[in-house]
Every structure is written in C-alpha cells, then in structure tokens.
Specification:
about 500 residues, alpha/beta, Rossmann fold, 3 domains, two-stranded antiparallel ribbon, 11 strands, flat
C-alpha cells in the first residue's frame, strides 16, 4: 500500500500536458515530485515492457537519423508560400517573405528536435521571426507600392501566419501520436544510479510521448536506479551497452561519476552516433536560457556533439584540397626563394622530414623548411625545440617568426595527411610523454593534424604549457564548425603578417 502511494506522489497525472492537447500527461515543469534519497527505496520497479519494434521511419520528428526539420520544414514552407498563389499580383513579395521566414526560423533553432512538443511553447519564437521577416520585406515592398497595396500584402501575410500555426498543430499532433504508439522511439541508456536517474526512467516508461525508451542504466550496483530499472553495467561498459542494446541516445542523469572519467567514456568513437543529453546541475533554479527542454519536471540540456564525420567534413576536405592546391601554385615563387635561402645558409637538405602523429594515432611524414643545423635522428625526435636554440640561423629565425617554415605542409594537406585547421602534430616520443602527464592530450587525435589551429592563433606556441594547448585543441574539436575554421584562418593571416611566431 505504501509503495502504491509513493508511485502516485512521484508521478501525478496532470490535467493536460501542453504537448498532449487535453490528454493525461506527465507532471508540468512547475510540479516537482517528492522523490528523495530517503524514500527512493520505496519506488516500485518499472514493470517488464514490450520492446518497441525498430522501424525504418523511427526518426520521425525526433532525434534519430530523420531530423525534426524534415517533418516541419516542408509543412511550414507550404503554409507560408500558399498565400502567394492566392494573390498573384504580389507573388514575388510574398514568396520572398516566405523564404526569409524559413531562413530565420532555421537559424533561430525552430527546427531543432524537442522532447517536450508544444505549439504554445514554440509560438513566441515562431511569431517573432516570421514578423521580423514580414517587417523587412514590407519595408522593401513599400518603396515600389502605395499604402493600399502594402496593407493587402500584410493582410495576406497574416493569413500565412495563421496557416503556419495550424500546420504546426498538425505536425505536433502527428509526432505525439507516433511517439505514443511507439512508431517513433529511441532506445536510451541512462548514466547514473541516483534519484534523478530513477525518476527519469519511470517518467520515460510511463509517458512515451517524449520519444525515448529507457533500456536501463549504467552506474552503481546499488541505489535508487537499481530499484527502478535494470543495471546494464558500469561507466566503463557504456560503449558495449550502447552497441548491444542498439541505443542512439545517452542521458546523463547524475553527477556521481568523476568528470574526467565521464568525458573519457562519452568521447569513445563507439558513441559518436548517439545524441547526448544531460540533467544540468542546480536544475531546480530557473535558467535564463529558453532553449532548454524537459522531461516532466526535470530540465534536460542537449549537448552539442562534434560531427567528426559527415557532409561538413566532406566540405572541409574539399576546401583543404582546393586551398592547398591553389596556394601551392600562387606561392611557388615564394617557396622557391625560401628554399634558396635555406640552401645558401645551411647547405644541402632544404626540406626537413620528421615523423608525426596524426588522426587516430597514425604516423605520417611531416614536411618543413629546415630552420636549424641538422641534428641526429634520435636528437631530432626527442629534443624539445625552444625559441633561443643556438642552432637556428638568421634565415631560420625569419622563417620561424613568420611561419614560412611550415609552408611545405601544404603538400601534407593536399595528400590528406593534414588539414588546414586543426591541432598541430607532435612527435611520437612527446605524444606518449604528454599523454601520460595530461590525460586529455590524446583526445586531440580525433581529427587530422592542422597547419594552424586555435591554440596557435591564441598565442600558445613555443614553450607555452602543454596542458593549455590540449585544452584549446579539444575545445576546437568539441565546438568545430566551418565558421570557426574561417575565423582561425583569418587570425592566422594576422599572425603571419605581424610576425608573431616563435
């Protein structure tokens, strides 16, 4: 009897969830359950469930391989463009408004997948961006039309906004229905064994409209989560659990694991395809950001995962080939002059070849203009280069200070050993040494080594701390985008022109 009462107090039925339009739903964001560590042992275990059938359309409107924008964008486009067919006189203006609206909606995150689906929650963002687009187009429209025609344009736009809202209501209803019937369902592994993990698994099991199916948790053998659901292993077993359960979502519930161990586990290549979500710390307080999602009363933050493979990487590789090929041709005279200067100062052997560690720990031969007197192979591989090295000649100092000694690496980029922007490659001896001293150093090798990188344009070169370089390199990888590459490239030009090198 006590267990039944606890179950009711933990998961009360609300009058209606904003996303379920009048049907019984989970607790609202303002209604916090009374689950506490002292009472967690009384939770009834999640009953045996029928595993959802995996269907080819299992990403519909949620967070799988088929993204939310694939469902919402076509409907929004039809709704916004439809008025242009009814008023042919203003066809171009209305079509321009529809196109600008879709761009602003996409840039504003209105097509990001959400666990809690609610038209009312999305309405302020939708109206704000669509009205902004209307104001821009109406201003331009007024330059060539009189006031009456402008009013007709705006009135027709209001019809389009109404159709947009109706379309969103329809798509939201379709998504929620598909989730409740388990047509849309993503197997989810919960990380953590505490109170939050237990409550999340109970909520997800009872309310399928969130689109997540908890297969179990990884964490301690004893605790609230062990009472609520099946333990699948420890944190070290996370990649194995994800593969064996065919899961594509990881939900980090409790902060009981050390952050370094959690980061190591989540950075595993086996988890690269998974969407990552987290219960934020101090989530009981109201947050200023309106981008958070929630499951019942528990806020959920979606963590950005670096897309180390995929279309954007193909674009990056294409840019590497194009830029390195063109620059090699354009700078051929400069490269020739550098080679002649090195030859005159140091004799034969213009290019310096050295083994470096690249992506996934693979070795490649890195090319540079020789900037100091030759050393033995062992000395070259194990001695740390410093700015005041007595072996560096006058030409070498100029080449190093301007970064011109690195230009032969454009060939490494062209053949695919390196990329324009990425962590600088290091010698195997120092990679092993630094990886032992700084556990996060090895994470730099998830991507190709770069000609220049965030650490270098931030002043971290020469004798600067290795730990700082590793932090900057990993920050670059975790936050990678084509725009970030472009910013680093611009900053690299200023570094070269102002001769801020070593």
């Amino acid at each position: 009897m006590m267990g039944a009462k606890m179950s009711q107090s933990i998961l009360p039925l609300a009058d209606g969830d904003p996303g379920s339009e009048g049907t019984a739903g989970p607790p609202s964001a303002g209604a916090r359950s009374d689950l506490t560590p002292s009472t967690a042992h009384q939770i009834r275990r999640v009953p045996d469930r029928i595993e959802p059938v995996v269907r080819p359309w299992a990403g519909l409107g949620s967070i799988g391989s088929m993204k939310a924008w694939m469902v919402l964008l076509p409907v929004d486009a039809v709704a916004l463009a439809a008025p242009a067919l009814w008023v042919p006189a203003h066809f171009k203006g209305l079509l321009a408004w529809a196109a600008l609206s879709l761009v602003l909606l996409f840039m504003g995150g209105c097509y990001r997948p959400r666990l809690h689906v609610s038209v009312l929650d999305e309405l302020p963002a939708l109206l704000g961006r669509v009205l902004t687009a209307a104001a821009v187009i109406a201003t331009i429209f007024a330059l060539w039309h009189d006031q009456d025609e402008v009013m007709v344009f705006l009135g027709t736009g209001i019809v389009g906004i109404g159709l947009l809202v109706v379309g969103r209501m329809i798509t939201s209803s379709v998504i929620l229905t598909a989730r409740r019937r388990r047509i849309v369902c993503h197997r989810t592994v919960v990380v953590g064994g505490g109170v939050e993990a237990a409550e999340l698994m109970l909520l997800l099991d009872r309310y399928p409209q969130y689109g997540l199916f908890p297969v179990g948790y990884v964490g301690p053998t004893a605790g609230p989560a062990a009472v609520a659901a099946s333990r699948l292993g420890g944190l070290d077993d996370l990649d194995r659990v994800v593969r064996s359960t065919s899961s594509d979502v990881i939900l980090v519930a409790d902060g009981e694991h050390p952050e370094s161990a959690l980061l190591d586990a989540l950075r595993s290549p086996a988890l690269a395809h998974c969407d990552l979500m987290q219960v934020p710390r101090m989530h009981q307080f109201c947050r200023q950001s309106g981008a958070d999602d929630h499951i019942g009363s528990i806020p959920i933050v979606r963590i950005h995962r670096p897309r180390l493979r995929g279309p954007a990487r193909v674009v990056k590789r294409g840019a590497d080939i194009l830029v390195s090929g063109v620059v090699l041709l354009v700078l051929a005279p400069l490269l020739t002059l550098c080679a002649i200067a090195v030859r005159l100062e140091g004799g034969p052997g213009v290019l310096f070849r050295q083994e470096r560690v690249g992506r996934d720990g693979k070795l490649f031969t890195c090319l540079k203009f020789r900037s100091m007197r030759p050393a033995t192979a062992e000395e070259s591989a194990t001695n740390w280069s410093i700015a005041a090295d007595s072996r560096v000649g006058r030409v070498g100092k100029v080449l190093r200070r301007t970064g011109l000694d690195e230009l032969p690496q454009l060939w490494n980029i062209l053949v695919g050993d390196m990329t324009l922007i990425g962590p600088r490659p290091e010698r195997p001896h120092f990679v092993m040494k630094f990886s032992e001293e700084f556990p996060t150093y090895r994470h730099r090798h998830r991507v190709r080594a770069g000609l220049t990188g965030l650490a270098q344009v931030s002043g971290l070169r020469g004798d600067t701390p290795i730990a700082d370089r590793a932090r900057f390199d990993n920050y670059y990888i975790e936050n990678w985008s084509l725009w970030l590459d472009f910013k680093i490239l611009l900053r690299t030009f200023s570094e070269v022109f102002l001769a801020r090198g070593r």
